[in-house]
Amino acid sequence: MGVPTFLRVSLFFFITMFVLPNHAFASVTRHYNFDIKLQNVTRLCHTKSIITANGQFPGPRIVAREGDRLVIKVVNHVKNNVSIHWHGIRQVQTGWADGPAYVTQCPIQTGRTYVYNFTIVGQRGTLWWHAHISWLRSTLYGPIIILPKRGVPYPFAKPYKEVPIIFGEWWNADTEAVISQALQTGGGPNVSDAYTINGLPGLLYNCSAKETFKLRVKPGKTYLLRLINAALDEELFFSIANHTLKVVDVDALYVKPFETDTILIAPGQTSNVLLKTKPNFPNATFFMTARPYVTGQGTFDNSTVAAILEYESPSKTPHSTLSINKLPLFKPVLPLLNDTSFATKFSNKLRSLANAQFPANVPKNVDKRFLFTVGLGTSPCHSNQTCQGPNGTRFSASVNNISFALPNTALLQAHFSGQSNGVYTSNFPTTPLIPFNYTGTPPNNSMVSKGTKLVVLPFNTSVELIMQDTSILGVESHPLHLHGFNFFVVGQGFGNFDPNTDPANFNLVDPVERNTVGVPSGGWVAIRFLADNPGVWFMHCHLEIHTSWGLRMAWVVLDGKLPNQKLFPPPSDLPKC
Predict the structure, then answer these.
(1) Please, which of 111, 152, 196, 403 could form a disulfide with 448 given CB 3.0 to 4.6 Å?
(2) Which residues of the chain have pLDDT under 50?
(3) Distance between CA 375 and CA 353 in Å, rounded?
(4) pTM to 2 decimals?
């Protein structure tokens, strides 16, 4: 199939040869330029000026191999402040390149430039990049494709072709105005007008028939689909009619392969799946559709994005002259909008490969344990204002009842320079200050506190974190993303976590490893990770409205004693606030 224009981007290779025992390969420095600029784009018969990288929507594809260094020059030509996050990249010792505004850097101001410089260490698979300030990521995002080191095969048969499938959302409105209005009124935000696949809403929407992504395939071949959920606020079900998908990877980490008709993918998550096409021309075309999995009580975009799987007709047969449009079109059956049973069964199938080549190094001993409640809440309305949140309050969200306030300087700079006074405090609570029946009848007081509190961890601390959903303003699934680390999902369940009985059921053998996990609606998830990466690392819900409302916090990981355990000093072009 032809490569869509948004996937083409020029890059230059600077090759340094070095030899490892029994294995020679090239370590490459790959240079990219991102010009952040406005571009007129039309969808749903609506033209608007959107913020893009290099005028492309979705943005340019970044391709690298495990071990490569990336040098990405970002030039800001728009009036908005900008920062870019390389989602899922570990950023070992290079926290300055992680990207969340006011966490690891001040944003790039209009007319300014910042060079993101980092090496991909021990990772291969599909990740993605996106703006990490306000709601700019609604249009400013693209795929990161990390191939294995040269000569290292996939742990499955080499696919015939690889195709990125990026789910997004399209707003006719300006998303900066949408979030600005929501924060001003204290109410819920307006929702998107469509979901998209590779930037295209598809033919189920009005005025969108020509804006449909088509995947043209040959019979009897295996295609690797690199799935990315770049939507702002919705988890998505995805299925291809009359075809089975084999999941082989999530969040750029191999899993034990399993087959499924439907994928569930939350914002921030990625997954590689194998699509085996039918052995012969099927005399049909097939819808590839996605629609939301919804657990909360707020409004949402209840629509379906469709792409088309189209088989190349064999030459020298009547099919070659047959109009594709006249073939029957099959549609998949997706789970119900609130099918938490499917969500649970799907997540339970995900297991690490856990073999000699790709071991699951689960921390067996735990140095520090944490219990974080995650959920919604309220905050008082400003004086002389009527707010549109519950009972005239403002919607808010919190971790351990603290709605995180971003500072006006970067947390990492404050930490590195030893000048944290007045920027943040190090007393984030390890457990809820006031325990309650988290998933039962909610307490009468739903007010949250506000603050910039962090957890400080010595280098190499092994951490166990329980993230517990709450019923305050309704239970809801929250996809939590941790920057700077992958973590093992050792357990999950419904109701309140029981520290006396639940740990006995933890999987410490082959739990799935990832960077973004859904906290089950009305339940809990247990993760473990080793704090072996010095820096300040953001953790937040990847539903953008929840992040805006304060469902976020950060971890400080201190330097270790050895040179390779210390954060590198800041680059000279680090943006200033």
Answers:
(1) 403
(2) 1-24, 319-321
(3) 32
(4) 0.94
